[in-house]
């Protein structure tokens, strides 16, 4: 029996200050396991050697949702009008992992914050807050509903990994973010947009597998077949 691919997923810090903890949503782990992978939680490590030792055990990486990427990483100060919530230690670990993975063409799926993080690692920029810096046409920050609620549609570009997963030109999806890609990072091409123009997907067609999605497919795998297929595609690319 062939070994199951190992997919590394960085852990994120909790807000518990009495007993600091690292965690990750189990929906990601479940989707990876269903796809045939072994998830490996990666703690936040300062030492490059220690972090590299874990990275080298991974056949692929998954960058998950979480707090905002510090605007200083894309050359901006925090706009006081925007509700920006940063986690410097998470940025430090994930930016190193993302730069290694993109430089070495290691299969990578990046979701929500993860998509924004990888875009920044490749030299791109973000809307610090969509409502403030782009507009209110669509409420992208739907934390007032269940995480699997389909809140708006996205238009998917043909001949992309995302199109292969969705098997549709237009698909409904969930939305749980207040930031989004503004300027694209090096090598990335837009693969999906919301009706208001916000980037909902990006890929680098020159790489084995580098897929960024702004929605949360891990929350949709039970009811939306395309969502699980996205994780299946990552694991297939990592074999």
What does this 3D model show about the protein?
- The protein is α/β, with parallel strands linked by helices.
- The protein has a single domain (6-238), classed as Class I glutamine amidotransferase (GATase) domain (Rossmann fold, 3-Layer(aba) Sandwich).
- 28% of the residues lie in helices and 21% in strands.
- It is built from seven helices and 13 strands.
- It has helices spanning 26-34, 48-55, 88-103, 113-121, 130-133, 161-166, 225-238; strands at residues 6-10, 12-13, 22-23, 38-42, 60-63, 108-111, 126-127, 152-156, 170-173, 180-181, 189-193, 199-203, 210-213.
- The strands form three sheets. The chain has a nine-stranded mixed sheet with strand order 4-1-5-6-13-12-11-8-9, with helices on both faces. A two-stranded antiparallel ribbon has the order 2-3.
- A hairpin with a 5-residue loop joins β11 and β12.
- α3 (88-103) packs across α4.
What top-tier CATH class fits best? Alpha Beta
Spell out the CATH superfamily. Class I glutamine amidotransferase (GATase) domain
> Largest sheet, order of strands side by side?
4-1-5-6-13-12-11-8-9
Q: What proportion strand?
A: 15-25%
Question: What are the SSEs and their pairings?
Answer:
Layout: E1 6-10, E2 12-13, E3 22-23, H1 26-34, E4 38-42, H2 48-55, E5 60-63, H3 88-103, E6 108-111, H4 113-121, E7 126-127, H5 130-133, E8 152-156, H6 161-166, E9 170-173, E10 180-181, E11 189-193, E12 199-203, E13 210-213, H7 225-238
Parallel strand pairs: 1-4, 1-5, 5-6, 6-13
Antiparallel strand pairs: 2-3, 7-10, 8-9, 8-11, 11-12, 12-13
Helix pairs in contact: 3-4
């Amino acid at each position: 029996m062939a070994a199951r691919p190992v997919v590394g997923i960085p852990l994120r810090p909790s807000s518990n200050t009495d007993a600091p903890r690292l965690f990750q949503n189990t929906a990601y782990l479940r989707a990876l396991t269903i796809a045939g992978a072994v998830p490996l939680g990666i703690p936040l490590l300062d030492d490059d050697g220690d972090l590299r030792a874990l990275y080298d055990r991974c056949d692929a990486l998954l960058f998950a949702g979480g707090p905002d990427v510090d605007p200083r990483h894309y050359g901006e100060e925090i706009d006081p009008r925007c509700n920006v919530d940063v986690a410097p230690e998470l940025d430090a670990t994930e930016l190193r992992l993302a730069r290694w993975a993109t430089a070495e063409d290691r299969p990578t799926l990046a979701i929500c914050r993860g998509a924004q993080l990888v875009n920044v690692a490749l030299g791109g920029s973000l809307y610090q807050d969509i409502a403030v810096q782009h507009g209110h046409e669509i409420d992208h920050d739907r934390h007032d509903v269940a995480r699997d609620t389909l809140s708006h549609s996205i238009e998917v570009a043909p001949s992309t990994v995302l199109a292969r997963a969705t098997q549709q030109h237009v698909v409904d999806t969930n939305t749980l973010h207040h930031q989004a890609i503004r300027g694209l990072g090096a090598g990335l091409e837009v693969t999906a947009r919301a009706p208001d123009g916000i980037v909902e997907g990006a890929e680098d067609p020159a790489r084995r597998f580098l897929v960024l999605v702004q929605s949360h497919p891990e929350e949709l795998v039970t009811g939306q077949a395309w969502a699980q297929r996205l994780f299946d595609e990552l694991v297939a690319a990592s074999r």
